[in-house]
Amino acid sequence: MIKAGIIGSTGYAGQELVRLLMQHKDAEIVWYGSRSYIDQKYYDVFHNMFEIVDADCMDDNMEELAEKADVIFTATPQGLCSSLVSEEVLSKTKIIDLSADFRIKDADRYEEWYGIKHPSRDFIKEAVYGLCEINREDVKKARLIANPGCYPTCSILSIYPMAKEGLIDMDTIIIDAKSGTSGAGRGAKVNNLYCEVNENIKAYGVASHRHTPEIEDQLGYASEQQVVLNFTPHLVPMNRGILVSAYASLKEDVTYEKVKSIYDSYYKKEKFVRVLPENVCPETRWVEGSNYVDLNFKIDQRTGRIIMMGAMDNLVKGAAGQAVQNMNLMFGLPETEGLELVPMFP
Amino acid sequence: MIKAGIIGSTGYAGQELVRLLMQHKDAEIVWYGSRSYIDQKYYDVFHNMFEIVDADCMDDNMEELAEKADVIFTATPQGLCSSLVSEEVLSKTKIIDLSADFRIKDADRYEEWYGIKHPSRDFIKEAVYGLCEINREDVKKARLIANPGCYPTCSILSIYPMAKEGLIDMDTIIIDAKSGTSGAGRGAKVNNLYCEVNENIKAYGVASHRHTPEIEDQLGYASEQQVVLNFTPHLVPMNRGILVSAYASLKEDVTYEKVKSIYDSYYKKEKFVRVLPENVCPETRWVEGSNYVDLNFKIDQRTGRIIMMGAMDNLVKGAAGQAVQNMNLMFGLPETEGLELVPMFP
Amino acid sequence: MIKAGIIGSTGYAGQELVRLLMQHKDAEIVWYGSRSYIDQKYYDVFHNMFEIVDADCMDDNMEELAEKADVIFTATPQGLCSSLVSEEVLSKTKIIDLSADFRIKDADRYEEWYGIKHPSRDFIKEAVYGLCEINREDVKKARLIANPGCYPTCSILSIYPMAKEGLIDMDTIIIDAKSGTSGAGRGAKVNNLYCEVNENIKAYGVASHRHTPEIEDQLGYASEQQVVLNFTPHLVPMNRGILVSAYASLKEDVTYEKVKSIYDSYYKKEKFVRVLPENVCPETRWVEGSNYVDLNFKIDQRTGRIIMMGAMDNLVKGAAGQAVQNMNLMFGLPETEGLELVPMFP
Amino acid sequence: MIKAGIIGSTGYAGQELVRLLMQHKDAEIVWYGSRSYIDQKYYDVFHNMFEIVDADCMDDNMEELAEKADVIFTATPQGLCSSLVSEEVLSKTKIIDLSADFRIKDADRYEEWYGIKHPSRDFIKEAVYGLCEINREDVKKARLIANPGCYPTCSILSIYPMAKEGLIDMDTIIIDAKSGTSGAGRGAKVNNLYCEVNENIKAYGVASHRHTPEIEDQLGYASEQQVVLNFTPHLVPMNRGILVSAYASLKEDVTYEKVKSIYDSYYKKEKFVRVLPENVCPETRWVEGSNYVDLNFKIDQRTGRIIMMGAMDNLVKGAAGQAVQNMNLMFGLPETEGLELVPMFP
């Protein structure tokens, strides 16, 4: 039985981790970290957990936790995990960091986009970018996982086969993404109040969102060239779900069949990636509560572009589910364990 | 492995049955009945099932199905199950009927409230009202289960202990209930369009809703007297969930502690009923996707009334989950099998 | 041109006042009071007002405002208006208070339910309860208006004719009310975040909500007896709207026609009260953005009860619209001026 | 007083026309056309109109209507207006067609994209594309107006200044648009049910949506070259609102100030177009219920692209409001009459 600790267990991603781990037969939670709710019953914060979780919320003590836990999930704001990690900690336990601290290999670039100083640059190199479908072998051997961002997970998986195969002009990529509101976190901000989000859609972080360099880096590795792209996220009045519509110019004339066979070859064996039948667009409702990413594409002969589309649950494949998937790989368990959740509709 | 057939598998309750049975380790679905989508892939109707269910939708053939299935779920409009059931069918298989056909023991009363003729009155007596928490032993031995209605399940469980203990005046019961829109079904009606339901709340079926006699009957059995009550359902702009606020006059002065101990004595051992801590009101968000019913009550000394409250997921405990719970009991499985789903939030 | 000042102009009710007054041909706003946003452009807080309102937000200075304004609207938390009102202020200007400070004639009762000390008990007697349909003549002569609460407005208008005519047993009244989330205000609280409210319904303030004594008092005046009742509010995932379902036992057998004629006699001349055709239930979608209250009732012969129903927009008739209606009466303008807004659907 | 007839008055756009015209002081509605609800009270279909509209729904008789009405609005599916228009009709009345029949000047192109035969090609030339901000002078003289589509209105106004000034590469335009569900119409379709739309976002009509040629044509006129672009609409779980995020490569280095001054020069005098302050993104909540289009842009130095953004209410500026704006121009009224509605929030 894997002993897991969660630092930041009372955010939306942290709570989703609790939901998933409670249904995982080879893991148990030994630490419900939460600075905001120390000594309160976890079920007082999330009543869905009443009679399921009896533990109290505890302070975020990485040292103590390293003694108790086989794996620590940090579902915390940027800068926290990187300030707590150390060789001593990593010698005792594994860390899966759901924040951005170890996702960008170039520390200067991280500091520029995130506006904070990186406190543990030495560990950046060691950290493995935990997008299992792409880095599976490295994940298995990792001590420190940089769990991918929600938008990057969906964006990268949507575009990856075309980038890797060199079929699109990497200078023409535009990613227009839409997210449910749980992605904005559980902080008490006027802008996230029900009446402010409901009956509204807006773009935010235009040309400046922090997930941009993460996507650029990974697509850069795939295409073996430097990538600069446009990424525009939008806030949608729904709880969960991310939808990506990505555009790029095709470098050559390709048929639907050709591209379909490429996507199939990349993802056919992937349990959590579903390449949909022709003309079926991904929709967030079909993946809710599950670890699936649904993908499809459309070739527009008129403009010579391909539209690559992806849908997933931002809290599962975009955060907690992917973290569990990484945990499974790191501990030699079946990759799908605890994640074979059928999407819930409606 | 229990072989299960579903007649009416493409409604919301039918599809929820599929979701639950796909995650049930001792059952498999052998028949996806759907008049509307015959010969289409089930996943073409519900894309969440892509790569999970590969079967086609089939016609609703009870005869043929009785040969193949150990249990048949009928998630169909009133009148269908009762027109198909027969001694021959029941000699070969068990039936769990999610419609109202066998819920009312008095056939005249059924016909009066439902406005249709009951085609198989003989089976009404045999049918067991499948509210497991109350009729567990009878359910275990049943061939034919009348799976309770969504509103009745939540209403009855909320009021039952007070009725059974004789602590409330049964002539004073008023049930004000609120339901998510999946309860209205998947039929293409203008009134259920997104723009008609969103940003709206309304009462419907005031003083005439068909779930009224079902609630009255069961509370009548509990209190051993005839019960006439007010039941008012409301439609709420959300997908899932039922909330019940029930009012009744107390027959004597009782303390919070007294009533709490009664509710606990009825439900402490019940896995799917959670009596919440004092002053925590049930909310539908805390049970979504799960088979839980959350209950609580408040005594109003000023008016001498008790307010009894319940929340549950109408598609799970109010339909498909309860059906699976009944199946588990009928086949000697652990009652919770396939139903230990942690509520999903947000 | 009436010069109007608003203290608390950046809450939802305050902003709705701005919307209505901008479309009122005989009033202009001279003061946008807002402690939270002093010196910021009003349109920076509410971008809908861009190019419509150019003013800055100002401090809440009642003294200064009394010099400038013919009428002051206080859309503020309890206790503020009552701490600022004085004979000097009222000698210079009129006040329409949207808080509860002057709604309860018995100051002890106010203090008990609201948990704060009333700082200006002397003015309670003078204040007129501004439910225009009932107190029209007094409103016309008032200097100080207690603008009714949202739930009370809808509840009282729904029940008033039956109470006044003595047709219901006043000891049996149960009001089950449902409100959109704008009623919870614009404060940054976790409980009002989008993901906490969406896909949820809950009761709150059960047997203890502060609008209870206000409803009891007004129905007490109507029935000329002391009234104690149950009032249960619920939070609904929608922006605007209040729906009331009220129950009471009939004191005698009455026909639909009899009750209809009573409601018609009370409300036929009322521009903002619509008694709907038989069997059409009030729904919040049909009044959104307007000053209408839609009413109807259903007699349940089985239980001897009447169900009285009302729907309105909590921010209009339940707050800002009613305040403007009061202003119109106080200044001798046509009562409907600036309020003839057709409900917006969908 | 202008006498107006509406053919198709019981769709969402038709009903919005009724709402606007009821608040227009120089127009009255003389005909509520609706094939689906002939002889029913209009308020039976839309209860918001109870005690506001007393008329019955009538058949769609263009001949008879031409005798009675000064202007006919056709808020009908494609093909209807074009099959009813004639020289005789136009000699008696003016027509504002909210369908696509006369928007595309090249009839072959219309038939190709819409898949139907155009029954009155002769009138295409005469029809004026009623985007008032661009074709104001022609609108004033027109007998037949092609009221622009919802997506095209928002897309064209967002991009127009850059296209007209030749600052963007017209071969690089990608329009990613998002719409509320009222845009999908009031037809009873499973896909538009509450539970299918709620908690979901999806793209549809990818690389094939019918509004594509309309946008291309108008931007082609502006830039004086043939334009081929990508247009991807998405369905958002909200009632009203369209948001456009449009991308294009800049042809030269331009500063924020330069582009801002261009947008201002095009739109400063336009009452219904608001160019927002720097860094304020358009959001649909700020225009709801009004005729405004909110615009802004962001220059991305990294990619050399400009992101042009627009938000409006699809039923007002995107349909009924623009139709009234056209009517005002055609009849020599102030362009803003009946349209000075302050956006309603929340």
From TrEMBL, chains A, B, C, D:
Protein name: N-acetyl-gamma-glutamyl-phosphate reductase
GO MF, one example: NADP+ binding
Organism (species): Anaerostipes rhamnosivorans
Domain Semialdehyde dehydrogenase NAD-binding: 3-142
CDD domains: AGPR_1_C, AGPR_1_N
Locations listed in the record: Cytoplasm
Keywords, comma-separated and alphabetical: Amino-acid biosynthesis, Arginine biosynthesis, Cytoplasm, NADP, Oxidoreductase
Gene3D superfamilies cross-referenced by the UniProt entry: Dihydrodipicolinate Reductase, domain 2 (3.30.360.10), NAD(P)-binding Rossmann-like Domain (3.40.50.720)
GO biological-process terms attached to the record: L-arginine biosynthetic process
UniProt keyword rRNA-binding, yes or no: no
Record bears the keyword NADP: yes
Reaction equations catalysed: N-acetyl-L-glutamate 5-semialdehyde + phosphate + NADP(+) = N-acetyl-L-glutamyl 5-phosphate + NADPH + H(+)
Assigned protein family: Belongs to the NAGSA dehydrogenase family. Type 1 subfamily.
Main localization (coarse): cytoplasm
Function recorded in the entry: Catalyzes the NADPH-dependent reduction of N-acetyl-5-glutamyl phosphate to yield N-acetyl-L-glutamate 5-semialdehyde.
Positions of the catalytic residues: 150
